[in-house]
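Retro notes
What went well: the complex prediction finally ran end to end.
Inputs used:
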Amino acid sequence: MKKRTRIILTVILAAVFIVILTLLDQGVLGDNYVRRVLNLAAIYSIVAVSMNLVNGFTGLFSLGQAGFMAIGAFTVAIFTVPLEYREAIFYISPQNPILAQIELPFFAALLLGGFIAAGIALLIGAPVLRLKSDYLAIATLGFSEIIRIVFNNMQSITNGALGIKSIPGVKTMWLPFGVAAISIAIMKLLINSTYGLAFKAIKEDDIAAEAMGISLFKHKQLSFATGAFFAAIGGGLYASLLTSVEPKSFYFTFTYTFLLIIVLGGMGSVTGTVISSFLVTLGLEWLRFFDEPLTIGGVAIPLFRSGLRMVVFSILLMTIVLFFRNGLMSNKEFSWEGISGFFKRLFSRGKKEAGSNE
Amino acid sequence: MSETVLQIQNATMRFGGVLAVNDLSIDVQKGELVALIGPNGAGKTTAFNMITGVYQPTEGMIFFKGETLNGLRSDRIAKKGIARTFQNIRLFRNLTVLENVMIATHLHVKSGIISNMLMLPNARKEDKERREKSRRLLDRTGLLQYQNDISSSLPYGLQRRLEIARALATDPTLLLLDEPAAGMNPTETEDLGRFIQEIREEFDLTVFLIEHHMQLVMDISQKIYVLEYGRTIACGAPEEIQSNPAVIKAYLGESSDEDTQKEEAACRGQASSFRMKQSEMKEE
Amino acid sequence: MSFDTFLQHLTNGISLGSLFALIAIGYTMVYGILRLINFAHGDIVMMSSYFMIYFMSAMPWYAAILLVIISTVLLGVLIERVAYKPLREASRMSIMISAIGVSYLLENLANYIFTGVPKGYPDMPVLTKGLHIGSLSVQSASIVIPIITILILVLLINLINHTKTGMAMRAVAKDYETASLMGIQINRVIAVTFAIGSLLAAIGSIFWGARYPSVYPLMGVMPGLKCFIAAVLGGIGSIPGAVLGGFLLGMGETMLVAFFPTLTGYRDAFAFIVLIIILLVKPTGILGEKTTDKV
């Protein structure tokens, strides 16, 4: 396919997205509920891609995303709540006097959260990244929990178990979608660079990679810290979307949602992860009807009640894990050639059948 | 005058109760083609792993161009100029042939992370050079036509060649080949022998090789070390080794322990006499 | 702190430790054979507790206990067959993801079937009776549980070291492929391993219920993790190690809260900190053996 054709197609696709997003944002299409779900999907896609960078591309089994999200979420929470509300929120014990005076603009707090998470990832990574995959999983899970438990107890900084509310909310869909686009683009650039290739080499065979001169430590740290940075960015946006956060939301089982997303989308594919984030987020919403009693033609179907949604969801996850291990896109990315190839095959099959019917 | 590129001094490797390598001393001069042979389990690959930093020697020292390798990790050692292939092929299976070789050029990349991500001019230039160099290596090894194929889809013999191409891409001074002729028929083995000698010239390499194909070893090596149960039982030129009773015993089972001890001492003596010659020459 | 209070805490610690030990054995056995962290193990304990609630309401306690044990064992073996066996040749990440998936499914299933509202574990007077020994007041469980745990440990060690099945288990744990080439029925050995692990989970759930009578879908998550950490601490793959780790962790946690009451909120973090330390200092655990990979 000619390069010019590809560029034109990409521009058209981008224009379509921009138009749809503007319509949604302005309220012409959809309602608040739809906007919120889409925003959530965009935010989840940032965290999912960050997790895929570490797990899918570098082969490091990390279950720590929830902890890094929490760091981002609470940094935004602590620094962006307007000063006048703080006393009311920190009613059990007053907010740390230094922090109580600082109010940061949203993006500053967001980036700050990212850097803090990256820094902590570097600290954690130093001892932990050389562990074998199952131990690494438990260790990162452990750290995620330690972060949550610490947040749950630091009354004067995070307000402990009560959490923080009155976080300035997300005013436009361009915020989550814009940040998602930029974040994912950055991560994709990293993956496409020679460093990304080094990540893949480490995943394939870390002993051979090291023998070819790739410093395992440096590259694993790079991947892990970048993953943490963007998980925190996602967390900060999450806090803003929900306008209130509590440590309880960042239980390590939150990470399972992202694990499902990257397994479903294909662990070596960014496109797959993005598509899967939207599928899963929207799907979870759509599945809500499982939670309500259902009557068909006046007959009450017995199984439908609260909790069925997550059971169906878990069964879907198990099905994918057992039977569709490569996920939707395995390790392929979006490409116009891929799409035109797909349609060509579709039509040539049709032509063959039409031909044989003569 | 030739310099000592690799020097293993009384190296020992212990795994719990197992003594895999026992007081090993080896010398490899610049430009030489040295072979390490011995029955299975003799400790040959372990020796390679000690040189490349996969294992840290329990005792003894390893020097490369005069610098100590003890305590260094494999990537540092690769950066210093030692490259290797593996006994059981360790290609990056799901990556393409070209990618396998490109990765081996990553260690010398000068442009930073940001330049690489944004594909700034200096990074782009470097990338182009690396790509061309990788393609040249593939061409040299007859693999250029497969450059975009997934490496695990190559037939076994070509995979072995790819491993060599990959190792060459790191710009090594010393090339360690671990059973490069494994699974090859006599014609392929002959081609490989020629190939090794050619690349030694072309890339100014010193080659240290582990092999079981005796014909190949005798044809191309200048010096052979024979290992058994972790110890050197013989060393010398191919002709000497071929008629050496201790070697014959190790592979087939005759001769006496006395002979083995004498050989061991001779090899160690040779190594230290090389060193003495070196220091004498330095004084001149 | 008075000596009496200290003794009280010590007893609590031993009691908690033996609970951890029983469940940790299940983790260590499965890991030894399959190199798999059975994330679902803690949730099997949870399901076992729910089984008890429902069986107890329908029949006398001795029948209920028997049925609970049978159903828990069936559950464990079923999970292995359906979720782990198909992935035996796959990467470690794949099978761990499956374990996570099973855990998630069990939790959601419990939430759906039994609702998230905590239920009370049926009272077993023989275990919850209060005893007074000197100045100590303890549940009878605190005496019974450690004793039974040690008994089980002895039984298991005998099984592993002196029976054909045990030898088969050790062989599979050492070298899976060679064991199957030697004619050992891998599937049977693995099923037996899971059966024993689930059996212990069932017994563990009974003792757990005596001490912590609140039953809810997520009750197995944190204890499950801690028990795995205990297994790692003692030496993953070693049954005595699991017991040792369980006792150490249980004691440590209890003592931490006893001596530093202000740190009660950080109680759960203790296990994770121990985990990090042991992984850094001696990853094979206290009783574990050092292994090197062949390159």
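What we learned: The CA atoms of residues 233 and 264 of chain B lie 5 Å apart.
What to try next: split runs per interface for comparison.
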